[in-house]
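Quality-control log, excerpt.
Job 1 of 2 completed; input and output follow.
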Amino acid sequence: MIKILGEQNSLLNRFIYEIRSVDIQNDSMRFRRNLERIGEIFAYELSKELAYKTTQVQTPLGIAEVPLSHDKIVVSSILRAGLPMHQGLLNYFDGAENAFISAYRKYSKDGSFKIQFEHLSCPSINNKALIIADPMLATGSSMILAYKALIEKGKPKHTHIVSIIASKEGVEFTRKNLPSKEATLWLGAVDDELTVKSYIVPGLGDAGDLAYGGKE
């Protein structure tokens, strides 16, 4: 299932506008905060898809019944660009467990690259709602690599892929490599193109560099 939240008129589109804008995005603190706020919006929308049961709560004047989710959640992100979104998701899913994946593009002299996986820190995800956050879904390769590494820690009840900007190519690749009835893609916007270096166009540039500074 694919849900593109930016197709609806909401405050989300203001934050997407700001992280795309060359006049605004170079304020790295604001860029990180916008990623975090977008993560919070995704958390709220995603929460509607969880399993709920009615729970009683004692108030000063009596007993009230409130539907609460009983799903166990693991929030995971791909370092380093995924960290602000991870925090936004965790702000709402504050009882969630956490996982972190180290993966990056390793370039060759001819400009080609492969996704290099280095480290995974993760609890058991067996029968839990697994959320994987990364601001950009370009080719989809790093997302699928992360997913395959995570499911070695158990079989999730459902997997939620959360990305702000995706390419059509990345969406299609990810969709083909995930179990169709056990995964949902949550996206802010889908752009048409990838450059020869697999950057999304119009996209927003390098989310990791904008959030945390350049790298060598």
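Job 2 of 2 completed; input and output follow.
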Amino acid sequence: MSRLIHFGVFLLGTGNHTAGWRYPGADQTFLDIRVLQRVAATAERGLFDFLFMGDGLAANLRNHPSYACRLEPMTMLSALSMATTHVGLAATMSTTYSDPYTVARVFASLDHISGGRAAWNAVTTAASASGGNFGRVHPEHEQRYEIAEEFINVVRGLWDCWSDEAIIADRATGRFFDESEVRPLNHQGPRFSVKGPINMGRCPQGQPPVLQAGGSERGLNLAARSIRNFNCRS
């Protein structure tokens, strides 16, 4: 069986080095979309497989400048999708401080906008300071992974509510949907109750890939069950 190495670009607007922004000619902001467009264009020329945007939900002014002050990932990747053609577009979104319906919608939207290039890095959010921004007490490690397991299953279920044949758009009969090809999810779990279906047709990829980068035993086990291949075109 052939084995492939996939190369991605971890987006840091001011460079990987903490003091990189100080070098002559270096970019000094992660808030200028033109900087990111140049990085994306370079990645495409170099036949990289994907761009990856990490995220955090609490400001830390002692952190790397690109972490302390940056664009929201989904907005940014939607803009970059218009300036690229084949590179994958992966972003972090928290399972602790989001909800499954919203995550399913935004990644399905990015998948449609980009022509099937979206990927979700599902994280449980380690930074305890994030809780204060959402009026919550930050859950313990094990609890966060219990939430993540169900969360990811719900998102995938929502992506599968629509079949590939659900949108027929038949001008002759006036039928736009085949309602038999759209089903509710009706998920009832210990942490989430989600009826569905999502209000969006099936993704170009069917389901965008789900990635997980946790290094703990619980995180590695979740990654082994969650990882999916990129729809790479380079």
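Post-run check on job 2. The chain has a mean pLDDT of 90.
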